[in-house]
Amino acid sequence: MDVMQIAVVGAGVVGLSTALCISNVVPRSSVTVISDKFTPHTTSDVAAGMLIPHTYADISVHKQKQWFRETFDHLFAIANSSEAGDAGVHLVSGWQIFRNLPTEEIPFWADVVLGFRKMTESELKKFPQHVFGQAFTTLKCESPSYLPWLEKKVKANGGLMRTRRIEDLWELHSSYDIVINCSGLGSRELTGDSKMLPVRGQVLKVQAPWVKHFIRDGNGLTYIYPGSSNVTLGGTRQKGDWNLSPDPEISRDILSRCCALESSLHGAYNIKEAVGLRPSRPGVRLQKELLVQDDRRLPVVHHYGHGSGGFSVHWGTALEATKLVSELAHTLRTSDPKTKL
Ligand SMILES: Cc1cc2nc3c(=O)[nH]c(=O)nc-3n(C[C@H](O)[C@H](O)[C@H](O)COP(=O)(O)OP(=O)(O)OC[C@H]3O[C@@H](n4cnc5c(N)ncnc54)[C@H](O)[C@@H]3O)c2cc1C
Ligand SMILES: *[C@@H]1O[C@H](CO)[C@@H](O)[C@H](O)[C@H]1NC(C)=O
Ligand SMILES: *[C@@H]1O[C@H](CO)[C@@H](O)[C@H](O)[C@H]1NC(C)=O
Ligand SMILES: *[C@@H]1O[C@H](CO)[C@@H](O)[C@H](O)[C@H]1NC(C)=O
Predict the structure, then answer these.
(1) For residue 58, what are the CA distances in angstroms to 281, 301, 314?
(2) Which GO-annotated molecular functions does the record name (predicted)?
(3) What is the mean pLDDT of residues 101-118?
(4) Is the Cβ–Cβ distance between 160 and 97 less than 8 Å?
(5) All domains in the chain, ordered by first residue
């Protein structure tokens, strides 16, 4: 085996970052991203791309913190370089506010973001309904820039992009040595993974260039995330709802909830609606599996189920998936070529 052929299924933030990581790290390999949809048509395109961790019930806090720290440090370096504008990664400061005192006043990620502190009395005066708040600086990935930038980086490393819908992983057996399953919600039908569930999110993208500070209600339902050319207003979390059409009544409700936190949004203009289905699961699935059918073998790395926090942890989980790929590549190279693993 001269050059290892590696297929990454999925071209959201998870598939593209995994492809980039593999092409940076795994020697003598060729990476192909295979997906039925590419940017701007994935769930990842709808996301605000804020680095504020979501909590995964089935993953240790230690591991979640590690993924978040690796992602934050990686993107902080990009935001601090001449590539920042092209990649669409920038720092953003703001507030997370609570109507009731949260059980954890200091979240596990407090020392990863920058300048984390409790909000002062005078800051809280802006929010008469809220009793407590956290102020910090974090990072934001602008999907319309970040996803094309990841694609460009993968291609610069020799990677290929192929538009194709995969019905069954075995279709890839004849052309690829290793397959990485980054199909997001697609993995529910494809793997029969019944733990996967869509959590529908509707948002507005508005023009309000005077809004520079993010505001997030601690319950995660209402948020105002300013980006480089839009402000994202959210949101909803509708479990099990597959409807991708925007609901005008929900849009009115989002705008009124956001205006209640930031009155100046009454003057927002050029309001566009967007919907995405979060690929949710009690924990991200990061696992090697050797598929066997008769005498055929296909090594797979599963990497999906990032739910509400894909941007926040994607580089950390891509590093871990790449480690699994390296282990498989090593086994393939050192095993008897006739048995193919
Ligand atoms: C409204 C909203 C706001 C969000 N805001 C944030 C945020 O601020 N911060 C944050 O961290 N996260 C946020 N998220 C979550 C984030 O969007 C997801 O965690 C992330 O996008 C998941 O990435 P993914 O690559 O796994 O999935 P996707 O982006 O859905 O990509 C899956 C890819 O697989 C392909 N695919 C699927 N099935 C097949 C198949 N059978 N054959 C070929 N290709 C296939 C698809 O075409 C697609 O390219 C938000 C989500 C929503 C909906
Ligand atoms: C930010 O950039 C400066 C100048 O290039 C460099 O000295 C510094 O180490 C960088 N810091 C980080 C966190 O990337
Ligand atoms: C993901 O892996 C499963 C095996 O668990 C497989 O059945 C499915 O086809 C894979 N999905 C994709 C998109 O490759
Ligand atoms: C902002 O919204 C406009 C449409 O109003 C869109 O063309 C543009 O790509 C958006 N930019 C970002 C960074 O989301």
Answers:
(1) 9, 19, 17
(2) D-aspartate oxidase activity; FAD binding
(3) 96
(4) no
(5) 4-334 (3.40.50.720)
Ligand 1 proximity of 226 Cβ (cutoff 6 Å): no
% of residues, the chain, pLDDT over 90:
89
Centre of ligand 2 to C-alpha 35, Å, is 36
Average pLDDT, the chain: 94
Give the Cα separation of 167 and 24 in Å (integer).
29
Q: Kindly tell me if the per-residue pLDDT of 339 is higher than 60.
A: no
pLDDT in tens, 186-202: 866 656 677 888 999 99
Cα distance between residue 186 and residue 278, in whole Å: 11
Distance CA(68)–CA(81), nearest Å, equals: 20
Nearest CA residue ID for atom 6, ligand 3: 191
Q: Is the CB of 313 under 6 A from ligand 1?
A: no
Between CA 165 and CA 167 the distance in angstroms is 6
Amino acid at 262: E
